[in-house]
Write a structure and sequence with these properties.
31% strand, 169 residues, 8 strands, 2 helices
Length: 169
Amino acid sequence: MSEISDFRKMKDTFFVEDAQSPLTEEQKAEFNGLHYFPEDRKYRFYLKIEEFLQKEMVNINTSTGDVRTYQRFGKIHFQIDGKDVSLTVYKTDFGFFLPFVDVLAGKQTYPAGRYLEIEQSKEGKYLVDFNMAYNPSCAYNDRWSCPITPAENRLPVAIKAGEMIYEAH
C-alpha cells in the first residue's frame, strides 16, 4: 500500500463516520467511496514558487455568492505532457492554497475545479502532488460554500491525477 492509497481509504472512512464529513446523512447511507485517477508519479513535482513582488490581497467568489480574501503569493511553473503551464499559489492563514481547473472539468473532474495544499519540502522547494488533488466540499452538496477557481488557474491540459467527479449512488 502506498501513502496515497492509505490516505484515500482514510478519507472514505472520514466521509462515512465523521461528524465533519461534507456528506449529508442520506448521502452517507449510500456512499460507496470516492473515485480517483490511478496514482501517477508524473504528476508529482518539487517546485520553487516564483514569489510576486507585490503580494496583493484578492477577493475570490464562492459557490454561494460569498467572497473570501486570499493573498496572491506567487506562481509555480511545470510541464504536463510536454506543455509548459503555470498556476498561481494563494496564501491563507493555514498555508498555501492551489485551486485549479483542467480540461477534464465537467467530464471526469469537478466542473468548478479541484484544490491542492502544498507544503515546503526541501531546499526551498514545495511538493506539488496532484495525486492529492481533491474536490471542494460543495462538490458533494450545496450546503457548503467553496471558493471558485480563478480564471488564472484554468489549465489547457489534463491533470489525470487525484479525485474524480463525485457521483452519488
